[in-house]
Design a protein that fits this description.
Strand content: 15-25%
Largest sheet: 5 strands, parallel
Strand order of the largest sheet: 2-1-3-4-5
CATH architecture: 3-Layer(aba) Sandwich
Distance between the termini: 13 Å
Structural class: alpha/beta
Order of helices and strands: EHEHEHEHEH
Oligomer: single chain
Number of domains: 1
Number of helices: 5
Number of strands: 5
Low-confidence stretches: none
Helix content: 40-55%
CATH topology: Rossmann fold
Shape: globular
CATH class: Alpha Beta
Length: about 120
């Protein structure tokens, strides 16, 4: 069973994503900001990270860069609201494998997760 780290500062978004992923057979952990995500990634080495871009303390782009510094093979999918195209491009350049636009479509999330995990 693949382990996925869900990172979002909005608890309802984490809950929604966690329910979708656990209902599809994944083991899920959560983080509420980029700094927490980096720490959990280094301790737990999840198979995939689903991470929001806009968060307090450390944003998703900075967290993505730190995760990729510690593990060049890290699988990270970024999530963003419509209108954040520049940040999405920056995330992809920094090594994100994909991006999902909010509001989430469950089918789109599962398609991206399954493709990135192979």
């Amino acid at each position: 069973m693949a382990k996925i780290l869900v990172v979002d500062d909005a608890s309802f978004m984490r809950m929604r994503m966690t329910k979708l992923l656990t209902d599809n057979g994944f083991e899920v952990d959560e983080a509420e900001n980029g700094a927490d995500a980096v720490s959990k990634y280094q301790n737990d080495k999840p198979d995939l990270v689903l991470m929001d871009i806009t968060m307090p303390i450390m944003d998703g782009i900075e967290a993505l860069k730190k995760i990729k510094e510690s593990d060049a093979n890290a699988n990270v999918i970024m999530c963003s609201a419509i209108g954040q195209q520049a940040m999405v491009i920056e995330a992809l350049k920094a090594g994100a494998k994909d991006f999902i636009v909010k509001p989430f479509q469950p089918d789109r999330i599962m398609e991206s997760v399954k493709r990135v995990l192979g």
